[in-house]
Amino acid sequence: MTQSQTWTDEKIAALVEPDRVHRLAYTDQELFDLEMERIFEKLWIYIGHESQVKEPGDYYLARVGRQPMVMTRDGKGEIHVLYNRCPHRGAQLCTARAGNAGKHLRCSYHAWTFNLDGRIDAIPAINGYDGTRFDKNDPLFHIKKAPRADNYRGFWFASLAEDGPGLEEHLGQAKIALDQLIDRAPGKECEVVGDCFQMVQQSNWKIFLENQIDVSHPGATHESTGYAAMTVEEDMKAAGETPPLEYGFLTDFKRIGIDGWDKFGTTGHPQGHTTLEGYMGLRPDDPDTNEYVRLMYDAYGETKAEEILGVDMHHVLLYPCNSVQPPLQQLRTIRPLAPNKTLTEIWQFRLKDAPEAIYRRSLGYYYLVNSPSTMVNADDLFNWWKCQNGLTSDGGDWISLHRNAGQDLPPDDHGIVHSAPASMSELPLRHMMQVWKDYMTNGHAKVGG
Amino acid sequence: MGEAALKLAESDPFAVADVSVETQQAVERFLYRQAEILDEKQWDDWLALYTKDGHYWMPAREDQTDGDGVPNIFWENNDIMKMRIRRNNHPHAHSQAPENRLCHVVSNVIIEDEAPNGDIVVRSRFHCAEYLRYEVRQFTGKYRHLLVRDGDSYKIALQRVDLVNREGPWEYVMQWWL
Fold it and tell me: Within chain A, which residues score under 70 in pLDDT?
């Protein structure tokens, strides 16, 4: 681990107090580099879902910390996570975001070819290497693999640290986010819908995570959208029409108001994951939902189906890179690019054998909330950009996380802390920064490496 | 597949119809006026451009043939358009403070089909500058309109907008149509 002259453990630790955070955690380039080294190039980072590379030869680009990676599927159907770099002269091997490489990855520069697991296949005029230190069996001349790549039920992650907790240990209780994306399917499988939307947030990656789980923002930030959706619903009803159910995802912002969000508990997990309980009317009593529930009963039996559908999570953040909304089949992953720049990939999933109407409901959410023409994230992105600008000013050094500070419930058997009852607690925000401090200071035991 | 989407999908995207000068002018005037309505934010006029079931559609992929049931950048009927107008004009739509401004140039107008009833399939190219957050960003792409005859003019049954950079990544969302 790099020892920073500027950022000693003591100085980093001093940025995070129990109820506030220093602004430099969001703006400093050297701290950002340390975050990449100690968090993003060490913990398990989301690569993608197996359905992104369905066929042999398929590849999909990903980014882990500062490292350009590529996920491939070989001829035997195995998935690999490789550095997207030719071991000859360093050229990027895949440039399209996604594609099919056929049987081999072929470097465009000197036509070296590689198997989809990274092993070298052939080099033109290879006799030129006779009598040199080049050795075809030396891993130095193969595409480097991610030190660790693993999947949880088809969701692939990579860790660039040789050692450390395994993927399931890292996911801990928060793996329910991924379970729910699969278990809510009567066909017990899910797959990505189309390609993802990519957005570049003009703000620090932590601001995104904090926002996802911040219950005191929706009524304020999204008031205009809640109002507009509500008036359109009223117009439709007056005209004898039935508004689409997904409009309700927006009217909630108005219906619940700014200070009505105290009914939804939040948690913080020891690995840094956080959750927010569900608030949207996701199990209405309509024919489509009832048909879906019937299919779930057929697939799982009533008890198990009710257990699956009873999980009430609006949001699960898998630290440090995923934001998952299981009941709506949405998954976002972040790829930090700079202290003030974060790339997001936003995916929708389809539940196998669920009625078309259930797919369309989540598609409606994907469109209204997560598409490039979103009427919801438009205001979030704008707020984050304004925060990032404000944090570079000398108008103050501290970010306040005081809401219900000191009132969190003690850790449960899994080490998970829960927000104070009937609060709009900033617990998840405080919790993530405490874990950040642990990961960022040298010698943290949980991280390994 | 929707009827309008089917008509667009079945129309030859390279056809050049032999139409009268009057028809060419009327269609061009309609397209230019649509761009002006957007640039000048005349929202009642905007809504009146579309048929009751009309859609504004910006596909996420070039090979899409219908906006229904798949992810899109835009896929809006009259109700969602109204929602967007009311939202963006709400005093607390803070991402519209300061308000953005759009400026379109529409050109390369080629009518590819004129049906016996006067309905039109027309393709064109556009360039649009958006002033937002004190900066100007650029959009460019191709329009394809399915226009249905409405008295002396037309209404839009379907407008397809293919951006040259449809895959993103997006630096910021699009709050208004392009």
Answer: 1-2, 279-281, 443-449
